[in-house]
Design goal:
16% helix, 16 strands, 35% strand, alpha+beta, globular
Length: 309
Amino acid sequence: MTGIHHITAIAGRAATNIAFYTQVLGLRLVKKTVNFDDPGTYHLYYGDEAGAPGTILTFFPWEHAATGRVGIGLTQETAFRIPAQSLGYWTHRLVEKGVSHGAHEKRFGETRLPFSDPDGSALVLVGDPTAATQSASHHGIPPEHAIQGFHSASLLLALAQPTGEVLQTVLGFRRAESEGTITRFAASHKGNGAYVDVREAGGFLQGRMGRGSVHHIAFRARDDEHQAEMAAKARSLGLQPTEQIDRKYFRSVYFREPGGILFELATDAPGFAVDEPLAELGTHLKLPEFLEPRRSRIEAALPPLDSRP
């Protein structure tokens, strides 16, 4: 299995982030933990009921982070799949909730509804005629209109070819089609997280990481062996993958692709139910074992999560 595993972005106020992604978009908060490398901030995970690979959008909410700038070397937008017949429902919902959004547009024959979150993250809903009804929904969204998971991520790069080689050689995507300056790469399956769109923008302004920016994109590894194979292929292209790092819910290897975007290889297992029951996902602050001795200090430093905008 290839495809997107999760996407991690930078937010501002944590409570505002939770309110938007749960109450407006109807995603489930599947894990409430901290940034393992910077435990002074939360790490919030949203997805479907179980947080399945291909549905997981995560955030580092740094309340005082400067606003990022979209540009070369960053992810331009994150796109979700919805049933094609749900575009009207979501257009009405975004208007009703006061969410900034654009007009419907077309890319590769698909209808897209662009919008942004409270921190300026560029998001898109893509109508997919193959999307099935979700088994559960939240905050009044009917299951037949619920977000399925990721459709794609769009990368903004000076040159498309070097990144395309990584997507194909290391990550198992294939070059599918092109439209203007955008080249689509497709995974070996249909469904969630199946596409990466690369926009070649030549000498466009360099991007700046900050609030509203995507921090990194993680791609699926079936298991440790598959992950090691992909890391070896990355090294064969002159890239420098890290050693494997245990992130508790998956095991990770990181490297920067030639355009400068941080890529991660994340294993499907063990998943988010490893430290709390499925029914209780996202209801407790979960810490990795090495941070448990510091729990009281960590909890005292974290802001309250009152879920109000």
